[in-house]
Inverse folding.
């Protein structure tokens, strides 16, 4: 069953520019774009809320609404604590970005 959606002409043009061929349907294109948001990992499937959060986080990164911890520490005049395991560089579990 087909459904009609309303989009602005500029959005339609952007979508059309992403088509791999003129015969590709918008349904196929939208499904390819949706496939860019992962459904899960080795630990299991992601909830819809988590997938939406991932998408919003990627948009925040792209829009420049995030800052690296090092930049925030510098702005606040704080020294780097370093790693507790004696190694150098970021920890595998460290969070590298937070929202502004």
């Amino acid at each position: 069953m087909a459904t009609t959606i309303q989009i602005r002409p500029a959005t339609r043009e952007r979508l059309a520019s992403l088509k791999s061929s003129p015969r590709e349907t918008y349904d196929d294109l939208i499904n390819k774009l949706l496939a860019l948001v992962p459904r899960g990992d080795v630990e299991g499937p992601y909830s819809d809320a988590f997938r939406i959060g991932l998408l919003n986080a990627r948009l925040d990164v792209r829009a420049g609404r995030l800052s690296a911890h090092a930049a925030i520490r510098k702005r606040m005049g704080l020294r780097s604590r370093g790693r507790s395991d004696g190694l150098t560089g970021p920890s595998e579990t460290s969070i590298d970005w937070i929202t502004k």
Summary: The longest strand covers residues 66-68. The chain has a mean pLDDT of 84.
